[in-house]
Write a structure and sequence with these properties.
The structure is a single chain. This protein has 656 residues and is mostly helical. Among the domains are: 130 residues; 121 residues, Alpha Horseshoe (Serine Threonine Protein Phosphatase 5, Tetratricopeptide repeat). Helices cover 70% and strands 0% of the residues. Helix 17 packs antiparallel against helix 18. The chain starts with a helix and ends in a 5-residue tail after the last helix. The relative contact order is 0.03.
């Protein structure tokens, strides 16, 4: 009898035994379908789990058979109404099958089921059929709206389907998680605004599932979150998502928020724009993690707001800039920083300005005010320091209008008592902007009024000698900064002389540094100082300079030796321009003797450089130079350079 056959069909089916041929599996599914169709419907429960397993079958014909049988049951099973909540997920899962033929069969059967149910319940649905509202204007593009019967079937059974589905989305088997995650957006597309009453369960599931390592699961969940944004009022979903973010900020909750906003219509999201941006800019959210995934999802939130709200973003521009700055500051990956930079450009574009430089012009004051509020507590790892560094490095001409914030912050953070790594970082950034001073720190021509603070309070303390490698690195950084300042063409000759007056003693001591780079830059700085001062330097101070430069002619680095020789040329020019040359006679005589030793250097380039120094100084005391040269010419390996020097002295008249 049919009931007996139905019970027999509920015994372990052939596909649960050692794996049979796919045709056998198809035949078993079709036979089970027919037996249950015409037998005892109660046996559906016994075979459901086996049918669900066949949705994972490698052979499309097997999956097609499942869709066909389940669709047949939904249409023709006598007791089908009591099994809707169990059968609907099986048929709807086939709508995402990888084979088009299976998808088309499932879609066709599902529409037939909906239309049949709609006809059977015509009285109940009379109002909805007669006064059916049109498709919502913001309905997802590329999606065909299911017929009313299909939508009603899902909505009426959603409370029974969701618990099991939400459980399966976090199953330990990857395939189960992928299938379940694919089914959720299908259900939400049918449920439309009826999803609101199940929103807490749906969002809780999405928060968890968006942490999945399987990309397919995360992809389906972002699609589900977009549909939440499309059909649920932002007032409702924002309240739930933002409260979760406040309690426990996470990359997954940010992804759900970004996706929901991406799916939300502009006119619905716009009233909440400022509140969302303000929330995202809070330190407990935007500085919650330096993990690149977290920051990437935070960036997605800003991108969603900019792409959905467009010109309306002007109302929250400052907060969005704040978030983007934080991402640029904290991101480890260059690609992520570039994306944040591109988003800044997009924000500028929707605001109708030419680029992010204009955004800095608009917001640099408030941005720096917030960032620098805690500067007395900064260390090298403070997020605010990193943000400050980004603003200073990237704001361009806008920086010139923010000196009242920038210089006092630098002054406080570059004191010797502060974190050494932080000082190194800030000196590096300061050097960079000083090299382009006219386009950055001096764009408004205001830098001169802060020059004394920079030289006396920032550079001078850091050029003082302290033991240790870190202290040496800081002196190198400070010397680099001073070189950037003196070579940037932003200072007048008088201002450079003021800097020289303050810093020359410290720079002379840095000629002895272990770092070759420091010694080289120090030579160049002294050269600049001397060129600018001409003969105006105090004779006593001028005389103290040349012995330090002479020592550098014995440097291990030829670059430093060449720079020292070049600076000695400038020193001799200063002596020429000074009054009372006799005051310098003994010093110049000593210099002649030392230079003549180096004129016999094994390196030809050094010999050439020393010859130029001696030629420059020959006009001061030519007779003295001739005597000194003749006294050593026989000691040199080659007399060539000495002879060239003597010829030059005879040809050039003495300096008066």
């Amino acid at each position: 009898s049919p009931p007996c056959a139905a019970r027999a069909a509920a015994a372990p089916p052939p596909w649960r035994r050692p794996r049979p041929h796919w045709k056998v599996r198809v035949a078993a599914i079709e036979a089970t379908g027919a037996v249950i169709q015409f037998g005892n419907g109660k046996s559906v429960d016994d075979v459901l789990s086996h049918f669900a397993q066949r949705l994972f079958d490698d052979v499309p014909q097997v999956r097609r058979a499942v869709a066909s049988v389940v669709g047949g049951w939904l249409l023709h099973l006598r007791d089908r109404y009591s099994f809707f909540h169990k059968l609907i997920p099986l048929l709807l899962s086939s709508l995402n099958d990888e084979v088009p033929e299976v998808r088309q069969l499932a879609a066709s059967l599902w529409e037939d089921v909906g239309l049949q149910w709609q006809k059977e319940n015509e009285e109940d649905l009379k109002d909805k059929l007669d006064f059916a509202p049109p498709t919502p204007p913001h309905y997802p593009p590329h999606e065909r709206r299911p017929v009313l019967g299909c939508r009603e079937l899902v909505f009426r059974n959603l409370s029974k389907i969701l618990p099991a589905l939400c459980h399966d989305i976090t199953d330990w088997v990857v395939g189960t998680r992928v299938k379940s995650a694919q089914l959720l957006p299908v259900l939400l597309l049918h449920a439309e605004d009826h999803a609101t009453q199940h929103l807490e369960v749906v969002l809780r599931t999405l928060f968890q599932a968006c942490t999945d390592e399987e990309a397919a699961v995360v992809h389906s969940c972002t699609r589900s979150a977009e549909l939440v944004g499309t059909f649920v009022s932002p007032e409702v979903f924002l309240k739930l998502i933002l409260s979760t973010l406040k309690k426990t900020p996470s990359a997954s909750s940010l992804l759900v928020l970004a996706s929901a906003m991406q799916g939300c219509p502009r006119e619905a999201l716009q009233p909440h724009l400022a509140a969302i941006a303000t929330e995202l800019a809070q330190a407990h959210i935007c500085q919650a993690s330096e993990n690149d995934l977290y920051l990437e999802r935070l960036l997605l939130c800003v991108q969603a707001l900019v792409s959905v709200c467009r010109e309306d973003c002007g109302a929250a521009s400052l907060q969005l800039m704040d978030v983007l700055l934080t991402i640029v500051a904290l991101a480890g990956a260059t690609g992520l920083r570039d994306k944040a930079q591109e988003t800044m450009d997009s924000l500028a574009m929707v605001e109708g300005v030419s680029g992010c430089q204009d955004l800095y012009h608009k917001h640099i004051g408030p941005l720096l005010e917030r960032v620098t509020a805690s500067h007395l507590d900064w260390t090298a790892h403070s997020p605010e320091l990193l943000q400050f560094s980004v603003i200073v490095a990237q704001s361009g001409p806008a920086l010139g209008q923010a000196l009242p914030h920038v210089v006092p912050t630098l002054r406080a953070c570059l004191q010797p008592s502060r974190d050494p790594q932080m000082r190194l970082k800030l000196f590096s950034i300061l050097s960079t902007v000083l090299l382009r001073a006219a386009d950055t720190i001096n764009s408004q021509g205001q830098f001169a009024s802060y020059l004394e603070t920079v030289t006396k309070d920032i550079l001078a303390p850091s050029l003082q000698w302290h033991a240790g490698r870190t202290a040496a690195a800081i002196r190198t950084a400070a010397v680099s900064c001073l070189w950037a300042l003196t070579s940037s063409e932003v200072l007048s000759a008088k201002q450079i002389r003021d800097v020289q007056e303050t810093l020359m003693p410290q720079v002379l001591t840095t000629l002895e540094e272990d770092s070759q780079m420091t010694r080289l830059i120090s030579c160049r700085i002294i050269n600049t100082f001397l060129k600018t001062s001409g003969g105006m330097t105090d004779p006593e101070k001028l005389i103290k300079i040349y012995p330090e430069l002479l020592k550098r002619l014995d440097d291990v680095s030829n670059d430093v030796r060449m720079a020292a020789a070049s600076t000695l040329v400038t020193w001799l020019q200063c002596v020429k321009g000074a009054d009372g040359k006799s005051y310098y006679q003994s010093s110049v005589q000593y210099l002649y003797r030392e230079l003549l030793v180096h004129l016999d250097d094994p390196e030809r380039a050094i010999q050439d450089a020393i010859l130029e120094v001696l030629k420059e100084g020959s006009g001061l005391f030519p007779d003295l130079l001739v005597r000194e040269t003749e006294a050593v010419i026989h000691k040199h390996r080659s007399a060539t350079y000495c002879e060239q020097l003597l010829q030059h002295v005879q040809a050039v008249p003495a300096t008066q």
